[in-house]
Amino acid sequence: MAESKIDAAREWIVEHKLRSVGCLWLSGIAGSIAYNWSQPGMKTSVRIIHARLHAQALTLAALAGAAVVEYYDHKSGAKSERYAKFLESSPRKD
């Protein structure tokens, strides 16, 4: 049975938690800078500070989301199955 795109995206995010948080941070900074540059009457330093604060809030939300995913993976046993699959496939060097 083929995975849906949502399942495939979820699997990628579970495997690459830090990379997905970093991508969210980068897109948050870019989006916030673009939004702040469209607002007239703000100094450049204030625009950069606002962009950093917005991106920091997005990053905290993403880390909280990653923690929730980690908790449910641990609770459901999916994480142990993933590690068992990895350990079974690696060759032993005796």
UniProtKB/TrEMBL annotation:
One of its GO terms (cellular component) is mitochondrion. It is found in: Mitochondrion. InterPro entries: Hypoxia_induced_domain, Rcf2. Keywords: Membrane, Transmembrane, Transmembrane helix. Its main location: mitochondrion. This is Hypoxia induced protein. Residues 1-81 form the HIG1 domain. The keyword S-adenosyl-L-methionine does not apply. Pfam families: HIG_1_N. Gene3D superfamilies: 6.10.140.1320. The keyword rRNA-binding does not apply. It comes from the Eukaryota. The chain crosses the membrane at residues 21-38, 53-72. It comes from Helianthus annuus (Common sunflower). GO terms for biological process: mitochondrial respiratory chain complex IV assembly.
